[in-house]
Amino acid sequence: QKLDLSSLTKLPSVETPPWSATNPFLDETLRDVQPSPINPFSSFFEEQERRSKSSSVSSAPGKSQRDSLIILHQEPDTISFHETNRTVTHTDAVEQLKQLQIGDPDRVSSPTLPDDDPVMPCNLDAALFNLTPAQPKDGWPMMLRIPEKKNIMSSRHWGPIYVKLTNSGCIQLFYEKGLEKPFRELKLEINHEISERKLQNYDENGRIHSVRLDRTTYKEKKKYQPKPAIAHTAEREQIIKLGTTDYEDFLSFITAVQDTLMNLPASSTDLSTVGLNYQEEEITVDVRDEFHGILAKGDSVILQHSVLTHIYVLSFLSGLAECRLGLNDILIKGSEIVARQDIMPTTTTKWIKLYSCRFHSCVDEDMFNNSRIILFNPLDACRFELMRFRTVFAEKTLPFTLRTAASINGAEVEVQSWLMMSTGFSSNHDPLTQVPCENVMIRYPVPAEWVKNFRRESVLGEKSLKAKVNKGATFGSASLSGSEPVMRVTLGTAKYEHAFNAIVWRINRLPDKNSASGHPHCFFCHLELGSDREVPSSFVRYVDVEFDMPTTSASKATVRSISVEDKTDVRKWVNYSAHYSYKVKLSSANHHG
């Protein structure tokens, strides 16, 4: 049947449509129609070649419909490229397409992988090791919370001690540095966990960094409200609480304890055993990235960086359970063999290189070295660090750029920063899927000679100068000298914090919900010193930046599969988070005498 071309030019009528559309899947007359064995693409080219060779057109049954379609649009017999003097037939073009091979940029023999940074040195491990923020120490001067347990009848206070961590996994507490015998020893165990970092009140100068060591027990409980459900909850018992006003010592101590906990040997009683029986089995994998780096002044180019990935596991499995974890490791690309129910949803197709892999004692390292398969018997109802490794940063820029300029003119000091979201960061491309930066902290180191300018005595003790959004910094009363510092911020708050020995600009969320992502934010501080003699001969020429990003990965490390032997009804969860900590050099530091 020929198409009625005149019907295509008629205006559609509301009362009577020009044609009636039928659903081919519901049409009874089409039930007996079988799929055609003819390949429409190859048959079309073959027919065109026959038509070009033969002048006579023979009509065959089954081709009438195709002929009618050809009337509307006649295809040329050749494919024309940009060169006007070069033409090839369809047969040659098809042969060229068959011979075409698409290269894989992720293959191991490729000179550069997508996650490779051309500016990174060849000895990657040595470069990354030097960027580790807190190296282990022989000991740390700390403060101990006394008494260790809360008591309604007594108040608690901080007492100075000295802490050591032995190779055997014991925390030793000394009254002071240099003593041989500790007054208390704590043996680290696999069910010990380090709590979240906190800032709490310390003295009239400000707050103190504190952290707890808890004995954590996970139990399965049945809830009835708002609906019946099985939940695995954690019960924490505080063992010790330590604090310090030195942020570097604080981070160094936490890192040392985490390393020791990971290296603790796992006995057979700690693993999943036959006698266990959970009503609801589940396994949770937490992928946490730590980014450390140094950025250039001005354009915030990443000069040096390190990405350390920690993978934690918490499982509730009945009986003996052998688990396999599949990552987007470039060395296993194309050789994965995973059951359908073990595949985990991912948001990236990127494959990465793993450097300096370290494993918990429950992992079969020989299996990983031979086949890159992460095979392990998880600890029962215990959150532990399964493995850690280093990677190259997957982005070319950070979520936001920060440019800071400092100027010293005699006894006057000015510091100004401009902050703007980076368009080159992948998460910032689409505002609907943008992941915010949370708990943003930008620290401007303050020399010890200038601290008194940012503090005033009040009825309740000393008070720090604080600046809020669209509100100049004041102490609440006029200063006697009239040379009160001036601080302003267009987002968040800024004040001097003794725990960091710096002015800290805090922003809860970036980008702000009430401003456009491309809107810049500013920090400004003006300080008049009593004399230019108060200007130190040398001072820190960088700004510290620290923030968190939930549900994202700085390394693009992805859990592609979680397999539990002989179990198909296990609930599986994967959580991602990233913590960024880096230094940005000052754009300028002019000193005019």
From TrEMBL:
Main location: cytoplasm
CDD domains recorded: AP_stonin-2_MHD (cd09263)
Quaternary structure and interacting proteins, as annotated: Interacts with the second C2 domain of synaptotagmins SYT1 and SYT2. Interacts with EPS15, EPS15R and ITSN1. Interacts indirectly with the AP-2 adapter complex. Interacts with TOR1A and COPS4; the interaction controls STON2 protein stability.
Family designation: Belongs to the Stoned B family.
Pfam families: Adap_comp_sub, Stonin2_N
Coiled coil: none
Polar residues bias: start-end ranges: 1-10
Subcellular localization, as worded in the UniProt entry: Cytoplasm; Membrane; Synapse, Synaptosome
Keyword annotations: Cytoplasm, Endocytosis, Membrane, Phosphoprotein, Repeat, Synapse, Synaptosome, Ubl conjugation
Domain SHD intervals: 139-272
Gene3D superfamilies: Mu homology domain, subdomain B
Classification via InterPro entries: Adaptor_comp_med_subunit, AP2_Mu_C_sf, MHD, SHD_dom, STON2_MHD, Stonin, Stonin2_N
Protein name: Stonin-2
GO terms (BP aspect): endocytosis; regulation of endocytosis
Function summary: Adapter protein involved in endocytic machinery. Involved in the synaptic vesicle recycling. May facilitate clathrin-coated vesicle uncoating.
